[in-house]
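Why does residue order matter? Because the sequence determines the fold. Keep that principle in mind as you read this record.
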Amino acid sequence: MAETITAKNTKEAAPKKLTIAEILAQRKAFEEQIAAQLAEERPAALEAVKEQIATFTFTAEELGFATLEVVKEIIKHEGWTAAELGIHVPTAGRGAGTGDKQTRVMSKPLKNKDGSDTGVWLAHPPKFLDTEGCFTEYKAGKSIDAWLVNPADKKAKINFLKKLASRESKAPTKEQLGDITEAEFKAE
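Structure:
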């Protein structure tokens, strides 16, 4: 009788052999369970990671992301265009938009004497004006056309002369005005 009980227990303890279809069904159910668990825990995990990054002020490079310079070099080396990368590059002027997200495209009417650097005078003059002696030449009454990208552009020249006149507290001379009349200078 002891033999019969042992044989019976052995049969019950032996695992049921699954078919491939049953294994695949269990595998699919398990993968779905994992995906649901990941989707549930992802927002909390993301917040925890963001908190750690903010706390320790990690840089993108420290986190293993490529720097902007590396990305630019790769793009240049591969010869990709902005359109191929799905990047919209606006043309000059304002594009159609909602109004609050528009950017302005600004020309740079000033240049250094050799033409290798251009700039625009907004809150402060470009550094090359001071290093190349533009302010000294303006005070001396000499022409400032060498620092204009296009000396024939009257509007840019008048704007530049007004900024120089304001900075140096000295009105421009006839030589500096060139083909601009005093009335045009004062009207702008």
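DSSP finds eight helices and two strands in the chain.
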